[in-house]
Fold:
Amino acid sequence: MDNPLFETEPPPAPRDAPSFTVAQLNQLIGGALKQIFPDDLWVEGEISNLNRSRAGHVYFDLIEPTQPGVASAAKLSVVLFSQTKQIVNNQLKRQNVGAIKDGMAVRIRSAVDFYETQGRLQLRMTGIDPRYILAAMAAERDELIRRLKEEGITEVNKSLPMPPVPLRIGLVTSEGSAAEADFMDELRGCGFGFRVVLCDSRVQGDLAPQGLVAGLRTLYTRDDLDVIAVIRGGGARGDLAVFDNETLARTIAASPVPVFTGVGHEIDSSVADEVAYAALKTPTAVAAALVNCVSGYVEHVESQWHNIAGVAAAQTSLAQRQLSDLAKRSARAGRDGLSLADQRLTSRADRATQAGRRTISLAEQQLESQVAELPKLAQRIIKSATTDLGHIEARLHASDPAVLLKRGWSITRTSKGDVVRTVGDVSSDDTLVTEVADGTIVSTASFVESSPVDPEKDTSS
Structure:
């Protein structure tokens, strides 16, 4: 018995065993494949490594789909020659699918070609099933929507409060596109003061999801926006699959303000539509919805003002009627009150007249008494004034310069008549005029060195 743990050499080939050259074997393989696959056949798979040559040919790998991150178990090379490409494009166009691209699940019609010179097997694409693509896209979209709903992602943005006057709008779209023009034209035509902050982004192609996500996140850093609009014009359903991207959907759900979408879907909703606050069919419809929101608020305010004016008018009319009734009652009460007041006034006037007479009589008696005292009061005033006058005369006499001169005082003046009070008032050789009690002395000023004054000695003359 052979032991599997030990290798054994195969038996030598018989001398008469047939052998093939490489070319012969490739011919046999090619012939066998033509017998097995005489006609075109349908093959399902996922497009990978798609490449378009300058000659117009399209090359890609058709791989067995698998889970993300897991290598495919099988792969076939596919070529779509330029002569056949127009047929395939027409098939896709009739179903509004758009161009094929990496990651797209497809069902293609192809011939099995074996290139004997290279020993290479290749599928030569001759047709495509657009409905299969649409069904696969719809299935992927539905599965993603189901998962997002289970997580509650589809309701996050819808739960945000809608600003009553959304005049500050963040816009994510391709700058200069028809979508932007339609959106802005609708806003400009309404007459409201909308302000739009645009983030330019691709809305088609493999790089579009990343661009849209980057644009949204840029707007999220601002605190001066009321809503955000994500828009693009109409297009093939395959092209609009950009908006079925999971990262884009989760980014929309994370927006701090309501997000409106208008991405051109005419039949199916995109995943972005499912997670947005509101989904409209076109960019114009998105702008119109925002305009309606603002105009609705304006109409509400005007209606409230109208109601307030009506209530105010009714209250004013009621107040006027009440005031009129009050005025009539006041007039009647006034007339009655005036009559009663007149009676009271007459009674009080009589009492006042009597009291006045008594007051006048008493005042006359007091006046007569005061008149009798006037002569005595005048004599006392005159005597007091005479005494005060004598005192004043005595003080004036004591202050008379002539009296002071007789007592030994003198007055010295300069030649100009200015009284000399200090040494600083004169200069050397100035003429001085000194007035004494019995005459006038004229002298010339000179200065001598002063000596200390003996306080015990009287130096006055």
Summary: The chain has four domains: 22-128, 154-295, 351-399, 404-444. The two ends are 175 Å apart (CA to CA). The CA atoms of residues 192 and 396 lie 98 Å apart.
